Amino acid sequence: MERKTSDTMFVKDLLDCVFNVKLEDDDIDKMYRLGRLSDDKTRPLLVGFKSVEMKEKIITNLRNPR
User: What local confidence, expressed as pLDDT, does residue 47 receive?
Assistant: First the structure.
């Protein structure tokens, strides 16, 4: 449970600081790590959003250079 809380905070901070998108806890539909658990590797994080608008907002911000 601690890892899920940590992952949620990471995603919220990343979207806020880098993409300037404010994310609420209820905006996330699903979130989980991909691949097998390993001590020497960090696994990618898959995040699914409840609304298509949130996803499009993030993808749009990916293309905008800072």
Answer: 93
- Which sequence spans correspond to the domains of the chain? 2-63
As to burial, measured by CB atoms within 10 angstroms (0-12 exposed, 13-18 middle, 19+ buried), residue 31 is middle
The whole-angstrom separation of Cα 5 and Cα 19 is 20
CA-based nearest residue to 31, from 20, 47, 16:
47
5 and 25 Cβ atoms separated by less than 8 Å:
no
Per-residue model confidence as pLDDT tens digits over 23-40:
887 889 999 899 998 888
